[in-house]
Amino acid sequence: MDGENSSVVSEFVFLGLTNSWEIQLLLFVLSSMFYVASMMGNSLIILTVTSDPHLHSPMYFLLANLSFIDLGVSSVSSPKMIYDLFRKRKVISFRGCITQIFFIHIIGGVEMVLLIAMAFDRYVAICKPLHYLTIMSPRMCIFFLVAAWMTGLIHSTVQLVFVINLPFCGPYVLDSFYCDLPRFIKLACTDTYQLEFMVTANSGFISVGSFFILIISYIIIILTVQKHSSAGSFKALSTLSAHITVVLLFFGPLIFFYTWPSPSTYLDKFLAFFDAVLTPFLNPLIYTFRNQEMKVAMRRIFRQIVNYRKIS
Ligand SMILES: *[C@@H]1O[C@H](CO)[C@@H](O)[C@H](O)[C@H]1NC(C)=O
Question: Taking the model in full, what pTM does it have?
Answer without folding.
Answer: 0.87
